[in-house]
Design a protein that fits this description.
- The protein has 161 residues and is mainly alpha-helical.
- It has one domain (2-157).
- It contains seven helices and six strands; from the N terminus they run ββααββββααααα.
- The chain has helices at residues 21-27, 29-37, 75-78, 82-94, 96-108, 124-139, 146-157; strands at 2-6, 12-16, 44-45, 52-53, 57-58, 69-70.
């Protein structure tokens, strides 16, 4: 199992492990840091408003509820509660950023166009594509532009072995 965090700019910030999302997160360097240092930035003002909003991590039901981690209400708690259902809907919309980041990764790297037959200990290709994706986003390179793609490929072929 791979646990990856995605920021608001569709960049991957990751960790990995073999357990559930919540357990991987709890044992990751990032998860331990949040527990010991509360590394979430201060609340910020919402643009065009006087409201302050906290920075949070958005997760699914596999994560524990924390002050810095939002997850949906379980089905048993939201039944018949319209406010909780609306909250879950809005939270799921925030998680779309993660889905979009994986969609971008899938489009840019053809290896994801087929089933990966690999042992977990050989999963370095996944980390390599996530790192490459982040570098390309930092450089503002859109690989759907064939000229940019050709330049990236020609530069990669010039690298020493």
């Amino acid at each position: 199992m791979l646990l990856v965090f995605v920021d608001a700019h569709y960049k991957f910030k990751g960790s990995h492990g073999k357990n559930s999302d919540g357990r991987i997160f709890a044992h990751s360097t990032f998860g331990k840091y949040l527990e010991t240092h509360l590394g979430i930035p201060e609340d910020k003002q919402i643009p065009g408003s006087s409201c302050l909003a906290p920075h949070v991590i958005v997760g699914d039901e596999g994560f524990p509820l924390k002050t810095y981690l939002m997850r949906p209400y379980p089905g048993s708690q939201r039944k018949g509660d319209n406010e909780k259902s609306i909250f879950n809907y809005r939270l799921s919309r925030a998680r779309i950023v993660v889905e979009n980041a994986f969609g971008i990764l899938n489009q840019k790297f053809q290896i994801y166009q087929r089933i990966l037959h690999s042992l977990p200990e050989n999963a370095d290709i996944i980390f390599a594509t996530c790192i490459s994706h982040n570098c390309l986003r930092d450089q503002g390179i859109d690989l759907s532009d064939m000229e940019s793609y050709a330049n990236v490929r020609s530069n990669l072929t010039k690298l020493p072995n």
